[in-house]
Amino acid sequence: MVLRPGSEFAGFRVERLLGHGGTAEVYLARRGSAPPETLKILRADAPRDAFAAEVRIGALLQHPNIVAAHDHGEFRGRPWMSMPHVDGYSAARLVARGQIPLDVHRAARIVDGVARALDHAHGLGIVHRDVKPANVLLASVADADTREQVLLSDWGIARLTTSPTPLVSDDGMVLTSIGYAAPELLRGGTLTARTDIYALGATLVELLTGRPPFPLATPFAVMDAQLRRTPPSVSSRRADLPTRLDAVVQRALAKEPPDRFASCHDLSVAVARALRDHTPPEPGRPPASPPPEPGRPWYRRR
Fold first, then answer.
1. Domain 8-84 in CATH: superfamily?
2. At what angle do helices 264-274 and 193-209 cross, to 10 degrees?
3. Ranges for all domains in the chain classified under CATH 3.30.200.20
4. Which of 94, 233, 236, 280 is deepest in the core (most CB within 10 A)?
């Protein structure tokens, strides 16, 4: 049952519903005079294992670039977790607006923030498994030097590297976003930090060009491309990008994990080096778009 604004739940006062799915509802809520929090409440009849895993992993993830559960409990038979509320928007919204492709240095800063979050998680033996622009949140901050805070969210399908990592849930749901999934994830193989490095590389491609690596018409076609096709040339998609970025993307999206960067930090550093001395186009004068890639219809899956 969806809670109405003003309802009380486990010491929280609900302000409004933020969203809901098949297993949980998410609210903006507040405890007393404390800052607002995001409150996620599991439906009474929903499976609890995945929710409990998210709570356990969230308890381990304390980092300035991570949004994860920091409190949890059960109230009237319904498990809940809370996390800091981010007053911002996702990188996917910027891509949809066409803003990021005009500022490659901003894209590089976003990738660096996500890289810091992932390297922290990887140091704890945690793989996110669903890195993509929609799960990267951007929040304005007062510090002019920082400009914006980059936060990696949605750790709901994250797993310890020692845990089983099925691609499909018991109810048939695919436990990843196909457009950013590494080949070993799609094959049901062993997942490591380099699985997330692949997804961060795919995210980089979308931030730089406005499209994921393989913007094809069906999930099956995208899966086949992730497994078989050569990664795209971002400088061919966008004429003002330095060709040095192509080598960065090729390595990040290598089919075999050992051929990728050793850490997300290494990927971020490679992006910064590729953009060294790069001058973006003047405001209001976006670069000319290259012709469409043959045989590759464009679609976006959000």
1. Phosphorylase Kinase; domain 1 (3.30.200.20)
2. 30
3. 8-84
4. 94
